[in-house]
Design goal:
The chain crosses the membrane at residues 286-308. With 344 residues, the chain is of the alpha+beta class. It is built from 2 helices and 12 strands, in the order H-E-E-E-E-E-E-E-E-E-E-E-E-H.
């Protein structure tokens, strides 16, 4: 029985040793990808904000603005290409005191490589319905499970331009060690408006009359990212939106806010990042490591059983007689008597 059992163990050990690199370098690369069906709702808050209330035609100051961002994956939009994920994002910014009257609504659709996270132009990608935009770099995610301490090109949906997301620190977010990246969006014209505004609202003499204006935006964005997964766990968006006259002499703030992910959602994102990191570690480290460890043990035991002959047992001990001598020794013969027998 030793040899058949040993051969079976050798086969199992060889199978585990072959399985380990297969899981690490083949299966993991195909499983560690962005999901197709992402659904995520995140809230950001900005206290002491300023914005122009169009319903009252007044500039509101020291108000609390909230931003609700919803990301939803469209599993059928990739036209059957399983390597591409398509996500829709909608952000609704509103005054906490007037939630039914949005200050700004922005929506966009991105298509990106599920393994690298890089944007691609297909599948109806657009910004606020404009599908003429050409996206590049990264969008909502950093490189999937492969974030390093370096700069990354990120596409800004508001100004529709590529700007570097620069690494500048390592910080903790609710116990998770995150990489902090910052992105500076310079003052950029984002829309040409078809309305005229009173000169007084633009800081010009009233006699200047109504003025044509364009919308401009500038921002300073900060993202804290889990380097193990590429999942952002905290956002901070310091934005300033204005309208300006073509000559730049008149301007008015439309919105100024410092939006930060609320604490509850930070914790939820950290939990999601930890759960995702565990799955990645299982495929990249734990399962391959266990396969090598147990494969070597089975291989060693199998070789021992199949090809190493057991040592011959020692000969049985020779029993002793009651007089202390070995049983295989002949009993002593009685010595001949030296006393002479009498002669009859």
């Amino acid at each position: 029985m030793r040899r058949p059992v040993g051969l079976i163990l050798i086969g199992l050990g060889a199978f585990l040793l072959a399985l380990a690199p297969l899981v690490r370098f083949y299966v993991a690369d195909r499983v560690v990808v962005a999901p197709l069906n992402r659904y995520q709702v995140t809230s950001l808050e900005s206290k002491g904000s300023t914005y122009f209330d169009e319903s009252d035609l007044k500039l509101k100051k020291n108000v609390t603005l909230l931003a609700k961002n919803t990301v939803r994956g469209d599993v059928r939009a990739n036209e059957g290409n399983g390597d591409i994920a398509v996500w829709d994002s909608t952000t609704n910014i509103y005054n906490q005191a007037k939630p039914d009257k949005p200050v700004q609504i922005q929506g966009f659709r991105i298509a990106f490589d599920r393994r690298t996270g890089k944007l691609t132009n297909c599948c109806g990608s657009n910004v606020d319905g404009d599908n003429r935009v050409r996206m590049s770099g990264y969008g909502l995610l950093f490189p999937i499970a492969n974030v390093h301490k370096r700069d990354y090109p990120f596409y800004d949906m508001t100004t529709r331009q590529l700007a570097p997301m620069r690494f500048n620190a390592v910080e903790e977010v609710h116990g998770l060690t995150a990489y902090r990246f910052t992105q500076t969006i310079p003052l950029t014209k984002t829309a040409r408006l078809d309305v005229k505004m009173p000169a007084k609202m633009l800081g010009l003499p009233e006699k200047a009359g109504n003025q044509k204006v364009d919308r401009y935006t500038e921002a300073y964005n900060t993202v804290w990212v889990d380097p193990r997964t590429g999942i952002p766990v905290k956002h901070r968006q310091n934005i300033r939106s204005t309208v300006r006259t073509p000559n730049g002499k008149g301007s008015m703030i439309v919105a100024q806010a410092d939006l930060i992910t609320v604490d509850k959602d930070q914790r939820n994102l950290v939990d999601m990042a930890n759960s995702t990191a565990l799955k990645i570690d299982l495929l990249r480290s734990y399962i391959p490591g266990a396969g090598v460890f147990f494969g070597l043990i089975l291989l060693f035991v199998g070789l021992s059983l199949a090809f190493v002959r057991p040592a011959a047992p020692p000969p049985p001990a020779t029993p002793r007689r009651a007089d202390g001598k070995f049983a295989d020794q002949p009993p002593p013969t009685p010595a001949a008597s030296t006393t002479p027998h009498p002669t009859p």
